[in-house]
Write a structure and sequence with these properties.
Length: about 425
């Protein structure tokens, strides 16, 4: 497959790096009968000190309840996927590791991720997970990962700005455009703080029936996709009611919103602790994203725990995955609000579904878009972003920009 060619084509230097790193797939699984512990490795990327501390606490709880298993945690701070791919090729991959839904189709297609179906028992209750989240890690009827948490996008709005302008919280895209225009003052304050990238626009791009990707090729130059995204471009170039963060001196939309330079932003769960810590006096609310053509839509971002297909410690690895994504483990992991529970029962028990701020994020989970089952998403993503921004900034028409991006993306896909 094409992804296999890409992985196989990595340099010998990269492969030597993978071999040098400590792996765990080469040791036979030890059992309790000989009094020795089975050591498994869990690899993930860096996170905040608070998240790291919480995960360490949960892993200690796991080891206490599973005295025959020891977990060695590895943090891959830079170029996470490149390192993971290199190690998997070299037979030195971790037993369990993080896998983003964005990268899942491509990595699953290589055969390096273990299907979990033989380990998943009825009492694990796979149906308890929000359907779009679990489907992101399924392929041809098999389940390859279990989502550890997620966030959707919600519309964050500045209560004071809306009240002073006499604007109601918009529910449709047309209402949103009108409100954004009214809330822009032409002096550095905009109605909409936009993130002009596919990660935030994917669901909007497909709102009118077009497809960003089809059969592992870019198809986002489709007129239906152009028509879906044109209003965002027009908000910036025609209505002057939208801007990206750096146009206002901000680094991201959360900061732009906190500084009062945008009345609306589409953000995720991660923005909540940031706003609390950085702008504690800000009065804001959240709502589900505006409907487009009478339909609700949002993005969902999720990461799963997956098992290395080459691991010789699969039983112990599944014990870890099932604990971390089981009801008890997930309740502990999401207790601080860093992520939302991917299990519906845990979300209900935690109160997040009824929470004034997080409720709209939870409400979007059942209908959220979690990328596509496409092995070439990274190439498609990069080329879209490279050209869309030029159209957003008024440098070229949207249809021309997306056509150029699509042509380049498919050329790169063909040359893999």
């Amino acid at each position: 497959m094409k992804i296999k060619k890409m992985l196989a084509g990595m340099s010998m230097t990269a492969l030597m790096l993978g071999t040098a790193l400590t792996g765990c797939s080469g040791d036979k699984e030890k059992t309790a009968s000989n009094g020795e512990k089975t050591e498994i490795t869990l690899a993930g990327w860096g996170s905040s000190p608070e998240e790291t501390k919480l995960l360490d606490e949960i892993l200690k709880d796991f080891e206490s309840s599973h005295p025959n298993i020891k977990v060695k945690r590895e943090t891959i701070a830079d170029q996470y996927m490149d390192v993971i791919k290199t190690r998997l090729i070299g037979g030195e991959g971790p037993d369990v590791f993080y896998l983003d839904a964005f990268e899942a189709p491509g990595l699953i297609s290589t055969g390096t991720v273990q299907p979990l179906d033989e380990y998943i028992k009825e009492d694990f209750d796979l149906k308890d997970f929000e359907e779009p989240l679990i489907k992101a890690f399924q392929n041809e009827g098999k389940t390859y990962g279990v989502p550890k948490g997620y966030s959707t996008l919600a519309m964050f709005y500045n209560k004071k700005m809306l009240e002073e302008a006499g604007v109601e919280v918009p529910k449709t895209w047309e209402e949103f455009q009108a409100a954004s225009k009214k809330l822009s003052n032409g002096k550095g304050v905009y109605g909409f703080g936009a993130s002009p990238e596919l990660a935030r626009l994917y669901h909007i791009a497909q709102a009118k029936g077009g497809k960003v990707a089809t059969d592992n090729k870019a198809t986002f130059a489709d007129q239906k996709v152009v028509d879906s995204l044109q209003p965002i471009v027009d908000m910036h170039n025609v209505e002057k009611s939208a801007a990206e963060p750096k146009e206002t001196g901000a680094t991201w939309t959360g900061e732009m919103f906190g500084q009062g330079k945008a009345a609306f932003v589409f953000e995720g769960n991660w923005a909540i602790p940031y706003l609390k810590a950085t702008f504690p006096d800000l009065e804001y609310g959240t709502a589900e994203l505006p409907e487009i053509n009478g339909k609700k839509g949002t993005m969902a971002y999720t990461v799963s725990y997956v098992m290395n297909a080459a691991s010789e410690k699969k039983e112990a690895s599944w014990e870890l995955i099932s604990y971390l994504t089981g009801k008890e483990g997930m309740e502990k992991w999401t207790s601080k609000g860093f992520e939302l529970p991917s299990r519906k029962s845990v979300a209900e028990k935690s109160g997040f579904a009824e929470d004034e701020i997080r409720g709209p994020l939870v409400a979007g989970a059942p209908y959220a878009t979690v990328w596509a089952d496409d092995t070439n998403l990274p190439i498609i993503f990069n080329n879209f972003n490279n050209q869309f921004i030029s159209s957003f900034l008024g440098e070229q028409p949207l249809d021309k920009a997306l056509k150029a991006a699509e042509t380049q993306a498919n050329k790169e896909i063909e040359n893999q």
